[in-house]
Write a structure and sequence with these properties.
Layout (H helix, E strand, L loop, with lengths): L5 H7 L13 H8 L20 E3 L11 H14 L2 H11 L8 H11 L1 H8 L4 E3 L8 H16 L5 H16 L3
Helix pairs in contact: 4-5, 5-6, 7-8
């Protein structure tokens, strides 16, 4: 778990009722909470269940060598890492959704004992590609968007005031300004 923010701290102290985080934080949150209170995970609500989705991404295994023997060995490693047994262990240790749907069978007893981990697997049907801004502009977009969202969350500006600021900033980055 990254450094604790004020909302995260409030959740861990049982002062807020819900908290939305990456599944990768599940192990850390369960460890931090211990038996002080019951934490439950739920599927992220979608505004439009037919068109909506949740971005999933951030991992890949690539074989880049031209050497045939190294390529064969690397391919064996890729198959090993994506096998149901290894994906089950990665999921248990991280909370992330397994990349291999056959992992569900390997995780049946674990999911029965740890239902919070099952939520992400049950969300596989709404997984979609992660959006990426063109020309690697994500950090430029985020640097301008973050302070606006901060003001909005603190009630210093209204959603009606935030939207044009967000739109203008992102449009400016996309236009190369």
């Amino acid at each position: 778990m990254r450094t604790q923010s004020q909302p995260s701290s409030s959740f861990l102290q049982a002062k807020s009722a819900w908290w939305s985080r990456s599944p990768s934080d599940l192990v850390a949150y369960e460890t931090a909470i211990g038996d002080r209170f019951a934490m439950r995970t739920v599927r992220f609500p979608l505004i439009d269940a037919k068109k909506g989705g949740l971005p999933a991404g951030g991992n890949a295994l690539m074989v880049l060598t031209q050497d045939a023997s190294k390529r064969a060995a690397a391919w064996e490693f890729v198959k090993y890492m994506t096998s149901p047994a290894v994906q089950a262990e990665v999921s248990k240790a991280s909370g992330y959704m397994p990349t291999n749907v056959q992992t569900a069978k390997a995780l049946e007893s674990f999911y029965a004992a740890h239902p919070n981990f099952q939520t992400v697997f049950k969300s596989m049907d709404v997984a979609m590609p992660w959006f990426a801004y063109p020309n690697n502009a994500a950090s430029d977009v985020w640097q301008g968007v973050a302070p606006i969202l901060d003001q909005l969350q603190r009630g210093k500006i209204t959603p009606e005031d935030a939207m044009p600021k967000l739109r203008d900033h992102v449009a400016g980055v996309m236009a190369g300004k």
